[in-house]
Design a protein that fits this description.
seven-stranded mixed beta sheet, 3 domains, Translation Initiation Factor IF3, about 500 residues, Rossmann fold, alpha+beta, homodimer, BirA Bifunctional Protein, domain 2
Chain lengths: ~500, ~500
């Protein structure tokens, strides 16, 4: 019977034909899989995408993982206006300079030309800072720990689903504190939460560090980031956390009376993760057959596929009964009941959509009290990919298997990252590795913008993030320019 | 001890002084309570508000109540772009005519003037219909049942928190069906869900019916609405559900090959509820002391107030232990630990914020193994408002009490609605009742726009919604104009 099923299976199925092999052309594969798996559609407005139900369900799972952690750490959600008056946006000099080229402007409303242009928020430090100035009077009002789930807009030229679109969905946290130490601890805490979700939920391993001055958020003193490595050797910034110092509190006059009666400026942070994280997940885990979703992210953990030829109501009923039982056990499960598709098509379709486990339910299996369980995380044909499980044992089997798949996808991604973490000791090697997109190329670095600009001009690579030199580290020279090294830096081309 | 506490209590507290009595000036009361309870702040952009954490938590509870019901009935969430090109918006004639005066336009982006104006969505029929035209080919693709949680923008002149703001948060459902019957059933189903949530969760009773042609959604064949009655006798439209017929599918070319191979236009619906529902909740339930929140909506169901004079660590510890125990039992609970506020202030503050139950924890109560439990839904001093409960029985007591409060607020609101449901048999009476804002004034009505316009000119009242004449009803004349009646109509002034 297994052989018969393999014959039905879909090496040449229409599901697969439209997706070029990932290994040959990551970029085409990525776009094809995003469209074919119905995560997104291109919208009839330039540079924007529609997040379709299957894509939105991924976003909902990421949201839930983050939101529960935000709330556990004392943050509350709120909502601030979409539009920011130009005069308000302009108060923090670096910030407006950084964002102005990317702003979309509303100039007309209610049939009239507006007296002042209104920016669609590219980020909300400005409007939130303005409100904090009203809300905060005393040290008793601090800290303020607020998060917002919102759409933002940045007028980009080139766009790709999830990675770069004019409008995107994200969360942005904005906090205000009485002391610099508290603000530092907050920025570090949120970076830790991002790492926990990226690695523990999305199964995407990251390197964590501080951004160089040229890559820093416009208006921040320190920006920290999560960087994931894509299979083409390019890095993808997956979240950032900023120590804004007193830059915004001075520009927007956010002050408080401290315990010593002195009026002081607050210390603020901001931090964000967007649907870009889903782009990282797709690229890191996917294979030639399509998506591979970590179970904790999968909207559908288990697809049940009835093996029927013509009318077999008993098999369909058994599939539905199984689905009910699994749902009662807390599993996210669906039955592929389409009557115009053959099982082989359905296998390939479930694979393409990245569903972690499929269960095949056939008449003979039922008679034997068995189910055929196929996991998505391994190469087709690998040992243990397809097993027969006693019907009675399916609930516990799945609980274990889904944990295994989550761990296995993370382990595979870790191995991929480890292969892409390379070091260079000589300038020529370093530049070659950067040009060839060998991965995250780590060197002792001078931390000078001019050096970074020179490397970028030669290789298109920039620093992704920086780590301190080890305390026991020998005095070293910058591999790129020969000046004394101050930090260790990851260089890479990036999305 | 109870007397001592009453003395501490806050008839003249600063919490209350800033809120004018609801009974004397609903409008000032409403605005004051929205600001003072920290639901919203005015934003530094005209006609927009910030939804502060306490207000957003109310929105999250409403979202959750709706979202679970949408999903149970087979709907999926998705996200469509904020911006709609003008040429696209213009394809459905009635729709653009209805919305154009309220649109905000983006005309510049990325430092350049755009070749075409882009509307910030006032609603998303157009962009979603355009996508449906791409996604739907066959009857197998139907129905499509999608909901979107989103911000939308309508350039209004006069604005009030929740009731009318330029930008607001809502959900909008958009579905496409193979037959008119299915679309009708969908619109009716969603109206039923809205009613269930309005009455069962938000505890706001509503009248349900169809809108007149002049009050109908721009582009709809039939619009159905939920109308709540405010204490000033004005109606508040709280949700709408539209049968769009084939108007949008013809304008945006949404077709499918039916089982009979014929290519047909789909039948669409749309339906929405916004944060306006929160405005109805505030006005219907609130009293002179501030908000009164139905327990199912309350972000904090129980406020624990330690009764301490100076340092009493045992009382604070007991309050925290109680909070832990209640949280473990699934309650949303907080301890008011502020050390710069007296208990009397905290009582008034919890009342003002509408928290359904407060628990007072004092040293003597603890020694007696008791807690003082005060419910918010009744008049101060009413029998049973303040009771002593054995510490051991608190979890079960609260579960019962919160259900009672939910039911009691709904019953109070039902009585209020019943008082405002009036009928008129003569034209003069009818016009007087409309002018005096007696409530929802029900009459047999001719269903003619000219008659509605005449009533509006004389009284500012319009039809809120319509119901069929009873089948056993005597032939009747329109009370407003004397022509034959075709329906029964509720007239009222409205928000």
């Amino acid at each position: 019977m297994c052989e018969a099923r393999e014959a039905m299976s879909a090496t040449q199925s229409p599901v697969m034909k439209e997706i070029p092999p990932k290994s040959e052309d990551l970029s085409s594969w990525y776009t094809a899989v995003c469209l074919k798996a119905e995560l997104v559609s291109y919208a009839p407005v330039r540079g924007c995408v529609v997040l379709r139900p299957y894509g939105f369900a991924l976003w909902e799972r990421l949201q839930a993982a983050l939101d529960v952690r935000f709330k556990e750490t004392g943050h509350e959600n709120a909502y601030f206006p979409l539009l920011i008056p130009e005069s308000l946006l302009a108060k923090e000099g670096e910030h407006i300079e950084g964002f102005a080229p990317e702003v979309a402007w509303v100039t007309q409303g209610g049939g009239e030309t507006l007296p002042e242009r209104l920016a669609i928020r590219p980020t909300s430090e400005v409007i939130i800072g303005t409100m904090y100035a009203q809300w905060i009077q005393s040290y008793r009002d601090l800290p303020i720990l607020i998060n917002q789930w919102a759409n933002v807009m940045r007028w980009e030229k080139a766009t790709r689903p999830f990675l770069r679109t004019l409008e995107f969905l994200w969360q942005e946290g904005h906090t205000a504190h009485a002391t610099e130490q508290e603000a530092q601890a907050e920025a570090a805490q949120m970076l830790g939460i991002y790492r926990e979700v990226a690695e523990g939920t999305v199964a995407v391993p990251v390197v964590v560090g501080e951004k160089s001055s040229s890559e820093r958020f416009a208006g921040a003193n320190h920006t920290f980031s999560l960087e994931a490595l894509m299979p083409d050797g390019k890095a993808l910034q997956s979240a950032t956390s900023h120590e804004l110092g007193q830059n915004f509190s001075r520009a927007y006059d956010i002050t408080f009376a401290d315990t010593d009666q002195q009026v002081k400026h607050v210390w603020t942070t901001s931090w964000g993760m967007s649907w870009r994280m889903l782009g990282a997940m797709i690229m890191v885990h996917g294979d030639d057959r399509g998506l591979r979703l970590p179970p904790k992210m999968a909207p559908i953990e288990v697809m049940i596929i009835p093996i029927v030829r013509g009318e077999e109501p008993a098999v369909l009923a058994a599939a539905q009964a199984l689905a009910q039982e699994l749902r009662a056990a807390g599993r996210r499960v669906r039955v592929d009941e389409r009557d115009d598709k053959k099982p082989g098509f359905k296998f390939a379709d479930a694979d393409m959509r990245g569903i972690p486990v499929r269960i095949e339910v056939g008449a003979r299996d039922l008679a034997n009290g068995e189910l055929v369980v196929v996991r998505r995380d391994q190469e087709r044909g690998a040992e243990g990919t397809k097993v027969t499980v006693a019907r009675d044992a399916i609930v516990t089997h799945l609980a274990t298997l889904l944990n295994e798949i989550q761990a296995s996808l993370f382990a595979q991604a870790q191995a991929q990252l480890a292969r892409g973490l390379v070091t260079a000791e000589h300038r020529d090697d370093f530049l070659r590795l950067c040009r060839e997109r060998a991965g995250l190329v780590e060197i002792p670095w001078c931390d000078q913008p001019a050096c970074e600009a020179a490397v970028k001009a030669e290789t298109s690579a920039t620093t992704r993030n920086l780590r301190p030199l080890g305390v026991d580290q020998q005095p070293a020279r910058c591999v790129a320019c020969g000046e004394p090294a101050r930090v260790r830096a990851y260089f890479a081309q990036s999305y």
